[in-house]
Design goal:
By secondary structure, the protein is α/β, with parallel strands linked by helices. About 50% of the residues lie in helices and about 15% in strands. The protein has an eight-stranded parallel β-barrel, surrounded by ten helices. Helix 7 links the parallel strand 5 (about 130-135) and strand 6 (about 165-170). It binds glyceraldehyde-3-phosphate and zinc ion (ZN). Zinc ion binds near residues 137, 175, 202 and 224.
Length: about 280
Amino acid sequence: MLINSKELLINARREGKAIGHFNVFNYESAKGVISAINGKKKPSFVAITETTIRYAGLGVITSIVKEIAKEIETDFVMHLDHGKNPELIKECIEAGFTSVMIDGSAFHFEENVDITKKVIALARPKEVSIEAELGHVGRVGEIMSKGYFSKPSRALEFVELTEVDSLAVAVGTIHGLVTEMNIDYNRLKEISSKVKVPLVIHGGTGLTTKDIYKLISNGVSKINIDTSLRIAFMRGLKQNITEADPRGALTYATAEVKTVTEKLIEKFEKGAKGDE
Ligand code: G3H
Ligand code: ZN
């Protein structure tokens, strides 16, 4: 069943665990991620980006996810990742998303508050959960500085003004394939002592196991993973290419996505305990 993420994230924060957010982009990646969630019996986020919606079509990708959901017993959240356009967010809510992110991180504080409130007005009546971002989590190749990191007092102000359900924070993680991240744990700790809504980490690919445990023990309740799943998919595909039937290689790609998702779910579930 599709669920929203409110209770899931609140409970994760209380229990010192994180909920996995896994981006899917086609049938096979959705199948791999959802099979892992079901096998581990751990409700998680199955996330779709605007780029995937442009690639596959909103109706097609949501139908794939919803159809696979019918075959399983574990609940999950169907989430829009990095939504930037309120019109598209409205369409996603109508298409059955149970959680949406409004990414106003490119805006100044006041504009970010305004666009977040606009999306909350669309989502709240439908019981759709809302994630926003304050500060800016960059991408590999982007020139970043601590100036883009989330400021603890501003984070508190942002949550009070918007009443958002969860907040993505910029504390040093980076989107994409990175080998080293310099995470500002003191800043994270300060944000999590002030802000009581669940905190979200973007740019999960490249986090060490130690980072994962430390992030969770410092108040993170959701970790977003995209690039590692796409890499896993391509590994499965490339290693099993044959001339005749693409379904063989695609089955391996699905299995690789499933394995990577399962391993991450195990770490997220161990959570703060792993940091002891
Ligand atoms: O929103 C998606 C995530 O932040 C994924 O980041 O590609 O580094 O795993 P990643
Ligand atoms: Zn992200």
